[in-house]
Amino acid sequence: MSRAELINSLVDLYNEILQAEKAHQNLIYSVHEDNRLSAANLIHYLALRRFDLRLIQDELTDIGISSLGRSESCVLWSLENVLNALGKKVHSPTKHISRKEGAELLLRNTRRLLGEPHPGCQSSIMVTLPTEAAENQKLLVDLLNAGMNVIRINCAHDSPDVWIRMIENSRRLSQELGYSCKIVMDLPGPKLRIVAIDPSVKACFFRPLRDPFGRIIEPAKVWIGKDESMADPILEADLFLKFDKEWIDGLKAGDIVRFFDARGKARTLRVDHVVGRGWLSYSTQTGYLKEGIVFVHLPDSPELSQRATTLKSLSPQQPFLLVKKNDRLWIQGGQSPTKGIKQEGIVGTLWISQPQILLDVKVDEPIWFDDGKIGGRILQCDGDGAVVEITHAPSKGLKLRVDRGINLPVSDLKISAITDQDLKILPFIGQHADAVGISFLRIPSDIDDLEKALNNERIQNLGIILKIETRKAFENLPLILLKAMKNRSVGVMIARGDLAVECGYERLAEVQEEILWISEAAHIPVIWATQVLESLAKTGIPSRAEVTDAAMAQRSECVMLNKGPYIVEAVKSLVDILKRMETHQRKKRSMLRKLHIAGLLNQPL
User: Fold this and answer.
1) Structural domain tally of the chain?
2) Looking at the domain assignment, is residue 601 inside a domain?
3) Angle, vertex CA 529, rays to CA 73 and CA 481, nearest 5
């Protein structure tokens, strides 16, 4: 490419960007007045990235001119400077920002939303508080001294009574210690989860607790009760077994129940005491059970005769499905388990928390369970339920349990990010928090729903954090940002857990980079979240990979840590890592700080 061709290509690009700004004036002027220059720059950046610029970049690099690779925060200014350096004088007819002004806007927006970071650290550190923080003031003091300057409260857990104690303690202690501490509260959102499981083959086992030498520490506990019981009693039992009412009514304390388990092994249960509509019994043996096994009552009194009955139903304390590749599951809505459908190959039925999504899923769409550990595809669906064929699972299978998450990355789900539960929580958040996190948003209208709810409660000056955790949210990110920028204070959280499942683990690095670029173009602060120093927080020992990940997180404005017994140590380590990296890198730009190892040239070789 000749110099003239290079200049012409850059002029064409420059004109395309100006035309894009002119065509989207309505979007730019719809945002808060403090964000209009940022909205214009975002439009500039999107126009720039509609083209493959790699050849132009190589040409610019070869002649020692900026390749536009770090132009996110000041697109027109960067392009004008490149053209001016090439001898082509251009000047935009509209106001735009310089590199310095872009950095100042991002810093201003960051401080407004997240407050001042720990002294000596440029990045903010957010910590998800555990329940104990409501009472454990020493934990809060240690976290504040270690470097935390933003606390996150996940409103999917605990209650307003717990939240208010966390907030009051954090506000008071941060003021006493002289630190900034912002409060962010996440709305639960429409998290799609498994709420009940019903295996098609009813089988489970009980066993006593033994020490390392095989000695029994505690016998197995089995509840045996009436088949007419509407619900199992709340107690620490390994299994719940149901029989005919007449047979149960004939039991008394001290009696023995004998049976041959699913392996043909002779086993006994000792009846101990009444619990609800049945008895708690004990065994020092291990037994495997299935429906239809014959149980024989051996009365403690010799005058009474033996009585036999058949096991009607059984359920473990924590039900699960062992799911393997090529298995089929039936999914339906509602929380009251029913029998589901009978179909060949079905290994069990799952009940889900958002049954209305069954109207939106389509055949051949992917579905993932338990943070992507199990994957499948929709084989059949009719609005009332769906058959899922498992396509991804460990070779030995995996236990699928209640409360595990579900992801439908490509399904066009007609559910709002704002739920009825969110609406009940929002007044509390508006009164006590500095910012609200909107969970599982997917499309720009989700921001409209949040704004409507805030207006209905007359909540003003509340920062909004956009949790990008769905594929749809990532694909719609520019429009979501422009919609959210009607609010003065906005941030983006890269929720990498669900995002990895939704977009694919192989795409996560690419996706998080794009989120960083687009957010910087809008001068919006980014929170780097999910599993940062997780091993360190949970076990006290970091993995090599997570230390490198924490170093990469320095390119964001805030890094979030989740709770764990070693969370204070994790915050201290994160501060140390970030401070070191801040001298080497600022966003995408490498900083050429003096390197100590370069001094080796002064020594004799």
Assistant:
1) 4
2) no
3) 40
